[in-house]
Design goal:
Layout: H1 2-26, H2 40-63, H3 65-70
Transmembrane segments: 42-63
Family: Belongs to the cytochrome c oxidase VIII family.
Main location: mitochondrion
Length: 85
């Protein structure tokens, strides 16, 4: 019985420590009203730029897969070469 109590003790100590750290961090958080309002137009432009930035490279690769398949394969870098060094 004593062993089971001692096994749970470190977990309890970690939870208490986490609670203290979280309480300590909350004291530094503060907020003010925004200086400028961001309208729906600016939000739409920002989200469009993010989407384009993420999806454009993937779209380029998917569009050019047939060209990549037609290219001859290059030999691996670790393959022995025929040249004399």
């Amino acid at each position: 019985m004593m062993f089971t109590v001692l096994r749970g003790l470190p977990q309890t100590a970690l939870l208490v420590r986490a609670k203290v750290v979280l309480q300590d961090k909350k004291t530094y958080i503060y907020s003010k009203p925004p200086k400028e309002r961001i309208g729906p137009g600016k939000s739409l432009i920002a989200m469009s730029v993010f989407a384009l930035t993420l999806l454009a490279p993937a779209g380029w690769i998917l569009h050019h897969i047939p060209e990549y398949r037609k290219r001859p394969r290059s030999p691996p870098d670790d393959a022995p070469t025929n040249s004399i060094m």
